Amino acid sequence: MKTIVVTNRKGGVGKTSTTHSLAHGLARLGRRVLMLDLDSQGHLSVWCEAPADAPTLAEVVSEKTALLEAKLSIYSDEDSGGTVDLIPGGDRLFLAEGEIERRHSIPQLWLKEQFELARTETYDVILMDCSPAVSVLWSAAIVAADWVIAPTEATGLGVEAVAELHVRLAQLSKLNAAVQLWGVVVTPYDARTNLGREAFEAFQEQANGSTVWPVRRNVKLSEAFGYRESIYQHAKDSAAAEDYGAIAAAIHKDLG
């Protein structure tokens, strides 16, 4: 099993779209995937149509429910047998972070300890969607992760954000020396512009051996969110489905 955190310190760069699309792409390849919505905005939970009264990670923090008791079944692929489950997030997480700090001497270890207590080995992959803010849950996700995937926009600010992520990973390495940047996802990417090409080259230079993946500009992703469908359900022949499908296939291969 691999735990993957999808993160960037900059907002609006496709973290939720990447998490949702990779989870469903992996399920189409037969993988059992658990998604965690660690964002108090809860956009991943909205996309998955999680009921408003469903338990969230906030209830796990307050010990009202165990981690896997809060999961919701989201998707099952009839052909491959792959599945996607979700543990919702949302605005209740805002107060839960203070609870983690009060209950734990090293709050950054909270999520890793939860994974060790729960039977998460029933999954092939855990994908964590984080808010852009550096917070207790953000740090806990990094400490609990094997791999980091960084969605980013193809701009100078995007390059700076990925550089900052490298610094943050180094700062947390004393709690998780094994975590590595698996890949950078440039979204949306337009190879026709000088800015896009230059930013893409900059990402490759700072990637330290990890792969830089382009996801082409495509309105179908926004439509898929609106229809509460995966990109593969909504527009299986779209550029976004092709690009995210390629990234999911690479993860699938690296899982062994």
TrEMBL record:
<feature type="domain" description="AAA">
    <location>
        <begin position="1"/>
        <end position="176"/>
    </location>
</feature>
<dbReference type="InterPro" id="IPR027417">
    <property type="entry name" value="P-loop_NTPase"/>
</dbReference>
<dbReference type="InterPro" id="IPR025669">
    <property type="entry name" value="AAA_dom"/>
</dbReference>
<dbReference type="InterPro" id="IPR050678">
    <property type="entry name" value="DNA_Partitioning_ATPase"/>
</dbReference>
<protein>
    <recommendedName>
        <fullName>AAA domain-containing protein</fullName>
    </recommendedName>
</protein>
<dbReference type="Pfam" id="PF13614">
    <property type="entry name" value="AAA_31"/>
</dbReference>
